[in-house]
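Quick one: structure tokens for this chain, please?
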Amino acid sequence: MGKSWMPANIVTVETPDCAGAHDAAALIAPLGVETEFQRLASFEAPKGWDVAIVAEERTGQLAAVMAPPTPDAKPRLQHTFSTGPGALPAQAFTPEGTPLASAASELAQDAREIAERAGGGLDGIAAVVADTSERFDYGAVPYEERWYHGADAVPQVACGVGNCIDINTYLIAALRASGYQTTYLTCYFFDDNPDGIASGMHCWVRTQCEGVTQDWDIAHFKKLGRSDVSATLNPAPGQRFALAYGRDHCYVWRGKSIELPTPSVPMWVREDGTAIKGEPPVVTLTAG
């Protein structure tokens, strides 16, 4: 990918562990996607690594699968994003057809009634978002203990605790059950930290209705102690760089399927295709 003439931001990702620590053969990382506020200008893999660019089976989104020269090699990746406008493709709003993409019957019925009582349209979206916000407190829960773990569809929650992934899993299921075009985006988020270090992986929800695109980030409002959730990208000041859209990605590498339920930070990959979460990477932002 050629470099853009527009102002650029360089996102550098360094992992503190190596393939040998996980009996892994490679590392996989989404390259990044285009949105109205960014375009992927280039991606730089670690020097000396064997790199394959693979396409996600359903959406065609690109990821790099990188095999290290030695088991103890530690990777350093760079995504360069230009600030020129791009566009999220229309297929981003196509449901994935997996358990995390659909609502169980009780949630579906309740969400539809909430949207209808609000009059549908944009007001219906806002009502479903407000209802979801009221149901959750922000917090971390082990994956195996999450309310949707192992479910065939996203169940209804009366009062739950969850992070951005959990809250948005519920919100997307509720919005789609109400008939709204909705998608899930992952990103690196950089707050006002003067060191330019990402606060971590983050995700949010985007809707399209009546020709209007809206971005919803309940988790950030929750973290700020605010209940006045509205359609805005950064209630907490900062910058985000989108990595992927949708859930439950599948990539094929060397004849093996690599499944990424939440495509975001790099993950180690074993020979059989199993993806392993390593130590949290150090992600920094610099001007290009």
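The CA atoms of residues 52 and 170 lie 34 Å apart.
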